[in-house]
Amino acid sequence: MKRLAPWIACLLLTALFASPVWAANSTAASAVPAVKDSSPSSPYAKAISTVTGVAISPLLGTGALGIWQNFKAKTPEEKASLPWYAQWTFIVPALALVGLVAAKDTIGAALPPGMKKPLDVLETIENKASGLVAAGAVVPFTMSALSKMIIAQATPAGDVLTANGLAAVQVGAIDWSWALSILTVPIGIAVFLVVWMASHAINALILLSPWGAIDAVLKGARTALLGLIAVTATLSPWVSAILSLVVILIAYLVAGWAFRLTIFGAIFSWDFFTLRKRRFAVAEKGENLMFSSNTLTDQGVPMRTYGRLHHEPENGKIVFRYRPWLVLAEKTLDVRLETASLGKGLFLSTIRSGEKTAFVLPPRYRDHEDAVARAYGIEGGVQDAGLLKAWGALKELFGGSSAHAQVV
After folding, report:
1. Does 2.60.40 match the CATH number of domain 280-397?
2. Fewer CB within 10 Å, N- or C-terminus of the chain?
3. Which among 19, 18, 44, 27 has a CA at the least distance from the CA of 234?
């Protein structure tokens, strides 16, 4: 079931991605104005939709939210009191950067992988940075506003508490929203992180993918989902909230898969832009950090688990040590490499067992493949590796159990 979870999630999301066009056409055809939902529970629905939408695409979502809040503010005083992300000094540069990314994706579909990959790495870093900003600013703003609405509905101005008829306290004059925010803000950030991690996995998949056309499809699907949430929010907050809850549930189900891809993207980006390979040396008599691949999935090690590979030359034993979620209790696995060899790719190299990939080496190992072969007694040596067959690469991209690793 765990192996099927990413595929099930992709199928569900694909069904949702087709809905924005249908929803937009239906709205235009009917020309029925949206009904404003003033029910007491409406703020909950709007908060869920806002947090989910921003998490799917932090920079685009934050810019769109800023434009909406700026548009709703009518007076100069209201505009001046808006948060920083609703000011044009942020909106214009943010959406300009979104436009540059879209142009990169459009042009990059026709570029060779080697020319587009540095731009993909830059976008991965941008997505991490904007996600951090949104988690630290937009989500707390949203949840704090929700807390104020809840308190305002629970204690309308004018309510009075009396004690034996001797004293009266004007409850409406006391702002208890800060206390409620202590509960709502962490919940909002947790939801944001789960959804953002699933969305950010797309950037990691793009780093693995050698085809610009696949990149465009993945990006288009993510943007379509964000558009669907925005469109439904204008029609009915609760429809948008239900859709957001479906997205949150799917993100939760694939959290482990998304977390491993997020770690992979972070390591790839760091190694690539810091030119880590120039300062790196393979520990030929120790342990080396790398990612597991499909050969170990049958032994209970999830795809792209980050861990240490240790070689014991005295008995020829190779052991993989790793911590689930990077912090849980350490696990070990004895690894058997049959007809082992090193595959040297353009950006990533791999340790192969027969025709399958056992481990994926981060970019820091580039040009150090001979040392890796010596460290683990790989008799097959180093062999140049290119792009594999399309179907095998697609299955590897989404973590298929029988896939071969994609070397780019």
Report:
1. no
2. N
3. 27
